[in-house]
Write a structure and sequence with these properties.
The protein has 115 residues and is mostly beta strands. The chain is built from no helices and 10 strands.
Length: 115
């Protein structure tokens, strides 16, 4: 079993920045060996992929966040980050961390972009 704990969600003004963190733990889960992702979910809709970082540190992004968000990982701390810059009201959602071994999800962290 893998535990994922997200943090960093908050209320932020349009154009502002926010950094989300996701700490992973679990017996037999070797963090550095698996891709990690951030997803988000809008009210009444399914989850959509925001960004993925693979085991080599290569990244992919949804078109809607490309150039504004940056995913990264720290294998020494078993943590994945999502740096969110120039945020927009359309980024308001619950953000979830996802691991690509057992397919576990975190509990989510709320990001609200509003003036």
């Amino acid at each position: 079993q893998v535990q994922l704990v997200e943090s960093g969600g908050d209320l932020v003004q349009p154009g502002g920045s926010l950094r989300l963190s996701c700490a992973a733990s679990g017996y037999a889960f070797n963090f550095r060996n698996y891709d990690m992702s951030w997803y988000r979910q809008f009210p009444g809709k399914g989850r959509e992929m925001v960004a993925v970082v693979d085991v080599n540190g290569d990244t992919k992004y949804a078109d809607s966040v490309k150039g504004r968000f940056t995913i990264s990982r720290d294998n020494t701390r078993d943590t994945v980050f999502l740096q969110m810059d120039n945020v927009k009201p359309d980024d308001t959602a619950v953000y979830y961390c996802h691991e690509h071994w057992l397919g576990s999800w975190g509990q989510g962290t709320q990001v609200t972009v509003s003036s």
